[in-house]
Amino acid sequence: MKLLLVEDHRALSDMLASHLEQVGVAVDPVGPAEDAITAIGITQYDGIVLEVGLPGASGMTVPDHVRRTALR
């Protein structure tokens, strides 16, 4: 399983990624929503762990982007 972890707080992101990797999940951690959208365009993920209260672009732009690209 491969997850995209979208969390701008570095310590929390590192902790979550570490715990997920310990149970065998591959994790790509990113901070801002823009990086998440870029990662989604490059890699196929089984799921996304998403903080919605991101600085700059709202975290809700990520699922909106996924929906738009899935409909193409």
TrEMBL record:
One GO term of the biological process aspect: phosphorelay signal transduction system
Leader peptide range in chain numbering: none
Record PROSITE patterns: RESPONSE_REGULATORY (PS50110)
One Pfam family it belongs to: Response_reg
Cross-referenced SUPFAM superfamilies: CheY-like
InterPro entries documented for this protein: CheY-like_superfamily, Sig_transdc_resp-reg_receiver
Domain Response regulatory as annotated: residue spans: 2-72
Protein's UniProt name: Response regulatory domain-containing protein
Alphabetical UniProt keywords: Plasmid
